[in-house]
Amino acid sequence: MSLRRISLVVFVVILALVPVVTPEYKEFWITQANYIGLYTLVVFGLVLLTGVAGLTSFGQAAFVGLGAYSAAYLTLTYGVSPWLTVWIGLAFTAVAALVLAWVTLRMSGHYLPLATIAWGLSLFYLLGNLDFLGKYDGLLGIPALNFFGKVLNTGRSYFYLIWTLVVLAAVAMTHLLDSRAGRAMRAVKGGSTMAEAMGVDTFRVKVTAFVLAALLASVSGWLFAHFQRTVNPSPFGLNMGIEYLFMAVLGGIGYVWGALIGAGVVQILKDQLQVLLPKLMGNSGNYEIIVFGVLLVLMLQYARDGLWSFVDALLPRLRRKVDWAEAPPLPARPRPAHGEVVLDVRDARKEFGGLVAVNDVSFQVKAGEILGLIGPNGAGKSTTFNLVTGVLPATSGQVTLLGRRIDSLASRKIARLGVARTFQHVKMIPGMTVLENVALGAHLRGRHGVPAAMLRLDRAEERGLMKEAERQLQRIGMGELMHEQAGNLALGQQRLMEIARALAADPILLLLDEPAAGLRLKEKEGLADVMRQLRGEGLSILLVEHDMDLVMGLVDRVVVMEFGTKLIEGTPDEVQASPAVRAAYLGTEH
Ligand code: ADP
Ligand code: MG
Q: What's the number of CA atoms in the CB half-sphere (13 Å) around residue 359?
């Protein structure tokens, strides 16, 4: 058993003992623990949303309120069983979260945080002004939960329910993060270009993260209503929404267990400060808010990764057990016949304002061919890549893949058709292992989503994806490094990792943007060998590269660009002999 697994078991045993060993007169601490559990559930959602997917919400308290009020109102007014209201509350929450996400997540930037602030504020005032919800007094006399005949009317009995759910949620989250769906969520954090190039539907992934976070908050609200036995708007306002975010940041926004630490520290500190500070100041007031504000600034300045990062540094690095040796290989795409035109770029044009970055460029790439695309910096090579891969829409012109127009398709749709690429500036998930980064490339070769991941029903598929990732890493000579954190690799190795990631997609067309930059001679030779091998397997490669020895010794044909325009196309010999090219490009190099 791994140390992490043992820690979890020890933690659960300690939890189970807490109500047993806590004496009656210390009931207060049971209550505290219950609140910490309730908050932890909400903060789990923020870890997923903010820590993993990079989206910020100030509105989680409002989702807690939605869960709490649904339970309270339905039980009190219609006598609906709490075991039913939890699902109704979840349904309400899902609808509210979907609408919010749908409207705001298509817009980039700060629309989501702003929308969640508006949502947090408006729900608070709505709850406070609706007669049937008791206005600011709220709803009183919510019955205790009845769990198979046992009435949960003490803090102790409630403790078990809350913490069982916390542990289950933590385990489900941990499973999710270690899955195809989890990798897709992490991939959207640094912008959507890379994730979309891997075939991830980034909009959908963001909506999913937002809804999941809201659902966790809603469950917490349901528990809250039956634990407190009353609800009123104040715990569901914007203040609390900010406090949840504070808990997440304090604990460590990227860590599942950071949520627990954050919720625990804030709850206990708040309670102590609420007693201590007014005494010190000599009059009453919410001074703890000031302390929290200062703390937050200090955290962001000196310990941005939160308290759990210090614990995490002491734990052994997560190292995936290699359990995929026997996994059957993933099904492969049919390859076009040798010599068939795979990519046909015709009069492709891209203007940025007045600048013509790509000026009516045409070329073809055939199956089993390496085409070099060269030219000085700023010639328009990377922009051409972006036109082919759907990252940028072309101003005019056509791009065809195996006879099918792709120039108006989204990036991920083009990826699905078999186009894989690397980036001139490496785009990866630095906190994930090399293996997981490469497995992201095989995203479209799996299908399991969030529920299967949480329940670990995706393991057979995962083994297949991991086996493929390892195979590609070995092909590129990086098998030894698969368990390394990608962010720790040298730049050259990161580039090679990107190639393995692209290959894991089983592409028919591979676009490499300066793959040899930062590689040592030996690595360059290895890379050239791999490309020759791939070509032998019928893959088509479009290669942008500045190392002329590498290009000229490897490619079948070369296209030379300058100032967005195609200068010449031909075999390496023809191109090297051309005076125009010498003047424009090679002359400056040699
Ligand atoms: P290369 O990859 O050949 O070095 P690029 O395709 O990156 O060249 O750039 C071609 C030209 O287009 C450059 O002048 C660059 O400044 C410009 N350019 C590239 N991307 C953008 C963009 N998103 N917005 C405006 N100008 C751009
Ligand atoms: Mg470039």
A: 13
